[in-house]
Amino acid sequence: MYFLWVVDFLKNLTNDRFMPHGMCYQWQPATLWSNVIGDSITALSYFLIPAFLVYFVSKRKNIEMKGIFVMFAIFIVSCGAVHTISAVNVWIPYYNLAGFMKLTMAFVSMATLALLYLNMPKALKIPSPSELQDINEKLKAEIDEKNKLQKELENQREQLQKTVQLLNSTQEAANIGSWKVDFKTGKSVWSNQVYRIHGLDIGSPTILKDGINYYREDFRDRVTEVIERARIEGKSWDEEWVLVDITGKEIWVRTTGFATYENDQVVGLEGLIIDIDQQKRAAISLEEQAIELQESNDELESFSYSISHDMRAPLRAINGYAEILKDEYSEALDKEGNRILGIIHSSALKLGELIDDILAFSRLGRKELSKSTIKMNNLFKQIIEELPDSKYWNENVKIDIAKLPDCKGDEAMLKQALYNLLENAIKYSSGNENIKIAVGSISKGADEVYFIKDNGIGINMEYKDKIFGVFQRLHSAKAYEGTGVGLAIVRKIIERHGGEIWLESEEGKGSTFYFKL
Ligand code: ADP
Question: How far is the CA of 424 from the centre of ligand 1 (A)?
Answer without folding.
Answer: 6
